[in-house]
Design a protein that fits this description.
Layout lengths: L18 E3 L5 H9 L5 E3 L6 H8 L4 E4 L7 H5 L6 E4 L9 H6 L3 E3 L6 H16 L2 H9 L17 E5 L3 H12 L3 E5 L11 E2 L3 H7 L2 E4 L13 H6 L4 E5 L8 H9 L3 E6 L23 E3 L8 H21 L19 E9 L4 H11 L4 E8 L3 E9 L3 H9 L4 E7 L1
Parallel strand pairs: 1-2, 1-3, 3-4, 4-5, 6-7, 6-9, 7-8, 9-10, 10-11, 11-12
Antiparallel strand pairs: 13-15, 13-16, 14-15
Helix pairs in contact: 1-11, 5-7
The protein binds 1,4-dihydronicotinamide adenine dinucleotide and 2-oxo-3-(phosphonooxy)propanoic acid (HPV).
Pfam family, one: 2-Hacid_dh_C
Pathway: Amino-acid biosynthesis; L-serine biosynthesis; L-serine from 3-phospho-D-glycerate: step 1/3
GO molecular function: phosphoglycerate dehydrogenase activity
C-alpha cells in the first residue's frame, strides 16, 4: 500500500480530531483530552480483531493502545490520517516502530508510571513462590490441608537473579535487598548496581547461582526465547522462575515440563506468548492446571495508581504533540521541545532523512519571500522533523509548497 498522501490537509478543528482509545485505557486519559478540547474520543474496553481495527483506525488521527493491540505495518498503512500512537504502557514491541517512523507517525509511551507496581508484584511472588503458596492455596480450595515446612523457605539469605536491570529490575533489586536477599543481575549494558547488588558477566552465570530468577527485559530479537530448554535446565534444582516481562521471552512448553518433572519448584508468570484479547475470551496455556504455577492475567502494571498516572502522562503527550508539535520522549521520532507559537502559524514537516530535503524546504521560503520567525530541526536515522513558525498570512501558501517537497511524509499546520 502507498504511503500517506502528504497533499491531504491535516490541520483540523479539535472537535474534528478523532481519537480511538482501546483496551480500557483509564478514564483519566479521556478527562485530560477533554480538558484540552479533544472531545471526539471513542473509548473501547478491549483490543480489536485486525479487520475491525483497520476499519476504525482508517478514520483516526490518534490511537491509544496498551500491550495487546498489534499495530503492524499492514494496520498502519491503512491509517492515512494517523498523526500519533499513544502506548498507555511501557512496552512498544506491539507497534511496528519502523513502519510507524517511515509513515511519519510519532509513537509515545509511559516509560515509568507502572514500574513500581510490577516491582511490588515480583516481591510478593518471590515470597509466595518460596513458600509454595500457589500449591498450598489450591490444595485448601480442594478441601486439603498441606501443613508442612517441607519445600518452604524464607526469602532472607536467598539469591535473586534479575535479568534486565532497567527501571523495573533495579527497583526489584532495592526491595529484595530490604528483605535480606542477595541480588545479582545480568544486563547487556554495564549498569551501576544499587545497594549491594552485583552484575554478573553472563546469563548462564546468573542461572547457576540464583534461587529465584526474575525477568525484566523488553521484547526484542535478543530476548525472544532467551529462557529456552537449555537455560531452564541450567537453573539450580528447585529454583523459581518469575516472568512479568513479555511472554515471548520464555519457552512456555519447556517451563511446563520443568515444573512437572520437579526440576523447578515453582513459577509466577504474568505474561504469555498468546494472551486473550479481553476478559471475555478464554485463556489457554500449557501452565493451566499446574499447582506450582502462579498465573496472573498480565496485571503487573494494572494498579489504580499506575493506570491513573499513565492515562494522564500519555494523553498529555498526545495533546501536546497535537497542539504545538512537541515530541519530547517520543520513542521513534526526533525529540523537539517547542515553545508556544502565539500569533504565528506553525508548520510541521516530517520527511525521510535523505539528502536535499532541508535545502528544498528552505527554498520554499526564500523563493516565495516568506519570513521565518522560528525554525526547529531534529533528525534521526529514518526521519527529519522540521518545525517552522511563519506569519499567519503565509501559512496556506507554505503548506501547499511544502507538501510537494520530495521525501515529504506528513505535513500539517497548527494555528
Ligand atoms: N507485566 C506487566 O504488566 C509489565 C511488563 N513490562 C515489561 O517489562 C519490560 C522492562 O521494563 P523496564 O524495566 O521499564 O524497561 P527498561 O528499558 O528500563 O529495562 C530493560 C533492561 O533490559 C536490558 N536488556 C535488554 N536486552 C537484554 C538482553 N538481551 N539481556 C539482558 N538484558 C537486556 C536493558 O539494557 C535494560 O537495562 C518492558 O519492556 C515490558 O515489556 C513493563 C511494565 C508492565
Ligand atoms: O507497560 C507494559 O509494557 C505492560 O506490559 C503493561 O501492559 P498493559 O497496559 O497492562 O496491557
Amino acid at each position: 500500500m502507498a504511503p500517506p498522501d502528504p497533499k491531504q490537509k491535516q490541520s483540523l478543528q479539535k472537535d474534528k480530531i478523532r481519537i480511538l482509545l482501546l483496551e480500557g485505557v483509564h478514564q483519566t486519559a479521556v478527562d485530560l483530552l477533554a480538558s484540552r478540547g479533544y472531545t471526539n474520543v471513542e473509548h473501547l474496553k478491549t483490543s480489536l480483531p485486525e479487520e475491525e481495527l483497520i476499519e476504525k483506525i482508517s478514520r483516526a488521527h490518534f490511537v491509544g493502545i496498551r500491550s495487546r493491540t498489534q499495530l503492524t505495518r499492514k494496520v498502519l498503512e491503512n491509517a492515512p490520517k494517523l498523526i500519533a500512537i499513544g502506548c498507555f504502557c511501557i512496552g512498544t514491541n506491539q507497534v511496528d516502530l519502523k513502519a510507524a517512523t517511515e509513515l511519519g507517525i510519532a509513537v509515545f509511551n509511559a516509560p515509568y508510571s507502572n514500574t513500581r507496581s510490577v516491582a511490588e508484584l515480583i516481591i510478593a511472588e518471590t515470597i509466595f513462590a518460596l513458600r509454595g503458596i500457589p500449591e498450598k492455596n489450591t490444595v485448601c480450595h480442594r478441601g486439603g490441608w498441606q501443613k508442612t515446612a517441607k519445600g518452604s523457605y524464607e526469602a532472607r539469605g536467598k539469591t535473586l537473579g534479575i535479568v534486565g536491570y532497567g527501571a523495573i529490575g533495579s527497583q526489584v533489586s532495592v526491595l529484595a535487598e530490604s528483605l535480606g536477599m542477595r541480588v545479582i543481575f545480568f544486563d547487556v549494558i554495564t549498569k551501576l548496581p544499587l545497594g549491594n547488588a552485583s552484575q554478573v558477566g553472563s546469563l548462564d552465570e546468573l542461572l547457576e547461582q540464583a534461587d529465584v530468577v526474575s525477568l525484566h527485559v523488553p521484547e526484542t530479537p535478543s530476548t525472544r526465547m532467551m529462557m529456552g530448554p537449555d537455560q531452564i535446565a541450567r537453573m539450580k534444582p528447585g529454583a523459581i522462575l518469575l516472568n512479568a516481562s513479555r511472554g515471548t521471552v520464555v519457552d512456555i512448553e519447556a517451563l511446563a515440563e520443568a515444573l512437572k518433572n520437579g526440576n523447578l519448584a515453582g513459577t509466577a508468570i504474568d505474561v504469555f506468548p498468546v494472551e486473550p484479547r479481553g476478559n471475555e475470551d478464554e485463556f489457554v496455556s500449557p501452565l493451566r492446571g499446574l499447582d506450582n504455577a502462579l498465573l496472573t492475567p498480565h496485571i503487573g502494571g494494572s494498579t489504580v495508581e499506575a493506570q491513573e498516572n499513565i492515562g494522564v502522562e500519555v494523553s498529555d503527550k498526545l495533546a501536546l504533540y497535537s497542539d504545538n508539535g512537541t515530541t519530547t520522549s517520543s520513542v521513534n521520532f526526533p525529540e523537539v521541545a517547542l515553545p508556544g507559537h502565539a500569533g504565528a502559524h506553525r508548520l510541521l514537516h516530517i520527511h525521510q532523512n535523505i539528502p536535499g530535503v532541508l535545502s528544498a524546504i528552505n527554498q520554499v521560503f526564500s523563493e516565495n519571500g516568506i519570513n521565518i520567525s522560528a525554525q526547529f530541526l531534529q533528525t534521526n536515522e529514518l526521519v527529519g522533523y522540521v518545525v517552522i513558525d511563519v506569519d499567519a498570512e503565509y501559512s496556506d501558501l507554505a503548506l501547499e509548497k511544502l507538501k510537494n517537497v520530495p521525501g515529504t511524509l506528513r505535513c500539517r499546520v497548527l494555528f
